[in-house]
Structures are given as C-alpha cells and as structure tokens.
Design brief:
The protein is α+β, with helices and mostly antiparallel strands and 232 residues long. Helices cover 39% and strands 23% of the residues. The chain starts with a strand and ends in a 14-residue tail after the last helix.
Length: 232
C-alpha cells in the first residue's frame, strides 16, 4: 500500500465545497453567539491541492478553527473551549443530517460519508482548534485521554517552525519550486507509512516539506538544532 495523488476533480470539487460549507456554518454559529471569535482555514494538503489517498482508503479533509478572540472563555480553559466547539459542531452536523463528531486527541472528526453518484470514496472532516502564539508559531488544542473523563488533560501544543509557513509557500511557488514540494510531500508520506509512524499527520508533513525545500534554495540548514518540525 502507498499514497497516490487524488486527481478526480469532479469528486474533489464538490467534496471540498460540501465540507467547507459545513465548517463555515459552524464559524457563523460560534461568532453569532459571541462566546469566542473564530475563523476557519482548510489547511495542509487540502488547501494546496496536495490531497493524497492510501490505496482505496477514505480521505480526511483537515480544517483549522482558529481562535482570534476568547470573549467569555479563557484561552487557558482548554477543556471549556473544546467542549463548547464540540457542542456547536454537533448542532451543525445535525442540521445537515450527519452524525455527531468524535473527539480525538487533536481533532473533532466526523463520520465518513460518500456521494451516491460518481466517485464512491468516503470522506470526512478533521477539525483542529488552533491559536497563534506570541512567538508566531501555531498551537493546537490537545485532548489527552486517560480512560477516566475527569482526569483527562487538555493543553495547547506547539507546532514548531510553523511561523511564516505561508510566506515560504508563496516564495516557493513564485520561484517555481512547487513541483519539488509535491514530490517530496508524497515521498515523505509514504516513508512514514512504511515506518508505521502515525505521529506525522498531513499538516505536520506539509510543514516539514515546505521548510526543507525552502531552506534548500533560500539559505539555512533545516536540520540544524532539530529544525525538523514535530509536535511536542
């Protein structure tokens, strides 16, 4: 088994449109209530036309729900934020006829769905709650499960070296290195697959590859001081 590019545009376009509409409804609901203020981003592979599939397995679209203001919930109340967003997400999913989401370690994940006509590939939404740190890096809200709900731990987890990632993407595209990013991305995904490494979700692999190719051509050594991006 290995990852390959998903090229079926007649499937990709309506899939991304449907999932983005659901997440946009969530953003509108949350902002209307005013408990927190948020905006959404389709991130990583989904946003940059780097959608891959492992054999015939389902496709997950990754979204970041960015907190831009914590009005009535403290930014340090990670449990409160996660539970509030989960409740609102379930409200939207019920509206569109989808089942409730599942609360995983770093995301709220929908069940998998498929279109009745055309490409039958199942797909789902992975929604991560994020904020921008003072150091310019992204932080993802993590729910560490212990087996006892009252003892579960919630925290903000730093995605190292994610600062300026979009500026680096822009530079790579303007200087015609994006094909190398694509090649390196699928190569790295398959390398982690062979190693049975499940600690590198698509967004993390994406950051790794963008940084490596950027510093290859724009100076610097991405391997110095443990540059390779990882979640800690």
């Amino acid at each position: 088994m290995a990852y390959h590019w998903v090229e079926d545009k007649s499937f990709l376009s309506p899939m991304k449109s449907l999932c983005s509409d659901i997440v946009n409804q969530l953003v509108q609901l949350i902002n209307r209530e005013g408990v927190i203020k948020v905006k959404q981003h389709l991130v990583g592979s989904g946003a940059k036309n780097l959608i891959t599939q492992n054999a015939n397995e389902p496709i997950d679209l990754d979204y970041n729900l960015e907190i831009i203001d914590s009005c009535e919930i403290s930014i340090d109340d990670c449990r409160g934020i996660k539970e509030y967003v989960r409740e609102k997400f379930d409200e939207i999913l019920e509206r569109v006829g989808w089942d409730k989401c599942q609360d995983s370690t770093s995301a709220l994940t929908t069940k998998r769905y498929f279109f009745n006509k055309g490409n039958p590939t199942p797909f789902s939404i992975d929604l991560c709650i994020v904020r921008m740190g003072y150091n310019g890096n992204w932080y993802r809200l993590i729910h560490e499960k212990t087996g006892y709900v009252q003892w579960d731990r919630y925290s903000w987890n730093e995605a190292r070296h994610s600062k300026d990632i979009e500026n680096r993407v822009k530079w790579l595209k303007e200087n015609h290195y994006w094909l190398e990013v694509r090649d390196k991305y699928i190569e790295k995904k398959n390398d982690y697959l062979k190693r049975n490494d499940h600690n590198h979700p698509s967004f993390v692999v994406y950051i790794e590859v963008v940084n490596e190719v950027y510093f290859k051509y724009n100076g610097g050594n991405p391997y110095d001081k443990s540059f390779i991006c990882r979640l800690i």
